[in-house]
Amino acid sequence: MLPQVVATRYVTPLREGGSLPGLMEADDLGTYVVKFHGAGQGRKTLVAEVVAARIARGIGLEVPDLVTVEVDPALAPGEPDQEVQDLLRASGGTNLGVDYLPGALDLDRPADVVDAAWAARVLWFDAYVGNVDRSWRNPNMLLWHGRPHLIDHGAALTFHHSWPGAAGWPSRPYDSKDHALAGLHPDLGAADAAVAHLVDADLLRAAVADVPDGWLDAEPGFDSADAVREAYVRLLIERLDARDAWLTPLLGLVRR
Ligand SMILES: Nc1ncnc2c1ncn2[C@@H]1O[C@H](COP(=O)(O)OP(=O)(O)O)[C@@H](O)[C@H]1O
Ligand SMILES: [Mg+2]
Fold first, then answer.
1. pLDDT value at position 183?
2. Cβ neighbours of residue 64 closer than 8 Å, sequence gap 6 or more
3. Which mutation among 11, 14, 131, 140 tests ligand 1's pocket best, with the greatest number of atoms within 8 A of CB?
4. Whose CA is nearest to atom 14 of ligand 1?
5. Do the Cβ atoms of 141 and 149 come closer than 8 Å?
6. What is the Cα gyration radius of the chain?
7. What's the DSSP call for residue 171?
C-alpha cells in the first residue's frame, strides 16, 4: 500500500500536459504533484502510474515517491480558475500524489546527460509497459540532484482501456520511432540481460498491491479488485515471456 496523505492546500496547476495535474500541500507537510481521478482518462491513468513506477524501481530506474492523496471537494470554491474548481469537485476521495522534486529540470536534451546503458534500460522499460509518452517532444524525464528521474506513466498499460482485447497486448510491438532516447543507440540486448530477470511475479504482485481498491473495484467483467490485480500480473508476465515479439525489433537501434 502507498502512504496516505490528506491535501491541505491547492498551490498551482501544472499546465504542461492535458490532464492538469496540480501542485498541492498535504498534512504530512509534503508537496505533491497530484494527478486527479476526475481528470480525462481518470482512474486508469493513476493505476498505470502506480504499477509502472514500481516496475521502474524494480529494474533500478529512479522515480519520485508516490502517495495517495485524499482530496476534499470543499477545497474547490476557493480556487479562482473554473477548470481547477471543476477538477477538484470531480476528484473527491483518493487521488495520486507524486513527490514534488523542487528545482528539478525537464531533461529535454538527454544526450548531454545520460549514458547509452541507462537509455537502453529506460527504452526496455517503456517497451515492456507500452509507454508511448516519452517522445523527444515530451520526454517526461527530470534531472534532480544530478540524476535522471522518470515521471508520467499514465499512458502505459493501454490494455486496461479495453479488457476484452487485452489478450493481444503481450505480443504487441513497441514503436520506438519518436522515443526520446532512441537516438542514443541503446543496446536493448544488453539491457535485457541486465534487467529482465529482475521482473518476476513477486515484483508485479507488489506493484498491483500498491493500487488502491477504489481504483479497481468497479471494473466491468471482474468481481473484485483482486481479480483485476491478478489480470494485470498475468498480462505483464505474458508480455515478459513474449519478448521475441517486442524486443527483437528494437535490437537494431544499437550502433554496430
Ligand atoms: N515530481 C515532480 N517534481 C517536479 N516537477 C514535476 C514532477 N512531476 C511533474 N512535474 C512537472 O510537471 C509537468 C507535468 O507533469 P506530468 O507528470 O508530465 O503530467 P502530464 O504531462 O500528464 O500533464 C512535467 O513535465 C514536469 O515539468
Ligand atoms: Mg508529461
1. 94
2. 33, 98, 99, 100, 101, 149, 151
3. 14
4. 16
5. yes
6. 18
7. G
pLDDT per residue as tens digits for the range 146-178: 999 999 999 999 999 999 999 999 999 999 999
Specify the pLDDT at position 65.
98
CA torsion sign for 58, 63, 64, 70 is negative
Which residue carries 496547476 as its cell?
13
Query: Is residue 18 predicted with pLDDT exceeding 90?
Result: no
What are the tens digits of pLDDT across the range 182-239?
A: 999 999 999 999 999 999 999 999 999 999 999 999 999 999 999 999 999 999 999 9
Please give the C-alpha separations between residue 25 and each of 7, 9, 242, in angstroms, as whole numbers.
6, 5, 42
Which three cell numbers mark 190?
A: 544488453
Residue located nearest, by CA, to atom 11 of ligand 1 = 14
Question: Buried (b) or exposed (e) across 179-196, using 16+ Cβ within 10 A?
Answer: bbbbebebbbbbbbebbe
**Ligand 1 pocket: which residues have CB below 6 Å?**
14, 16-17, 19, 21, 33, 64, 98-101, 104, 106, 140, 142, 151-152, 154
Q: Which three cell numbers stand for residue 186?
A: 541503446
CA–CA separation, 95 vs 199, rounded Å? 27
Cell match 496523505: residue? 5
> In terms of C-beta density within 10 A (0-12 exposed, 13-18 middle, 19 or more buried), how is residue 146 classed?
exposed
In sequence order, what are the residues at sequence separation of 6 or more whose Cβ sits closer than 8 angstroms to the Cβ of residue 73? 88, 89, 91, 92
Euclidean distance between CA atoms 171 and 168, whole angstroms: 6
